[in-house]
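Q: What does the predicted 3D structure of Germin-like protein look like?
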Amino acid sequence: MVSALLLVFIVALAAGHGAAFDPNPLQDFCVADSTSKVRVNGVPCKDPATVTPDDFFFAGVDHPGGTASRRYGFTALPVQIPGLNTLGASHARVDVAPGAVFPPHYHPRASETAVVLDGTVYFGFVTSYPDNKLYAKVLRRGDVFAVPQGLVHFLYNNGTAPAALYATLSSQNPGLVLLGDALFGSGLADDLLAKTFLTDRETVDKIGLKFRS
């Protein structure tokens, strides 16, 4: 009986682990059809007869662009390649101004590997509770650093020149949770935050105003 229960547990655990990642593709490629109105867990495929080399191509990673964060001083340029649809990967160029940060955050559905294109950054991650161990290094051009899935990590440009990185994530939709924004910009009760950070409501309110402005 114990052996049977253990077997059921192992099978259930394995099934749950497999479901936590993007599903394996069932064909060579499934180029995203951005014109489709069909809603699925991903993007519908184009007719293979209409696929071209441009569906696997992206130009413009040689310079900054994309969404800018004036609060933190970084920009993020998604590398949108339709041919990566269903392949469990996404890419982005990230630029961080001198003295600026890509603040502590995590990707709930992806690990990350980043290569430094230019500049110098302090890059690291923190393991889960209760260890909360920091793994971090100062990276320079050509260096590569990896972050396990779901762990809090950060970038800090501690140099005097702009820094640029190219990041690869192991999910088509990795998700992004900025810890400061999630905690102080979401409407969580000040009492809860004060108890969480072992401080008083006045301090929490002062911090919160910076995220609500």
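A (community wiki): The structure tokens above were generated from the sequence. The first strand starts at residue 67 and ends at 69. The CA atoms of residues 116 and 143 lie 6 Å apart.
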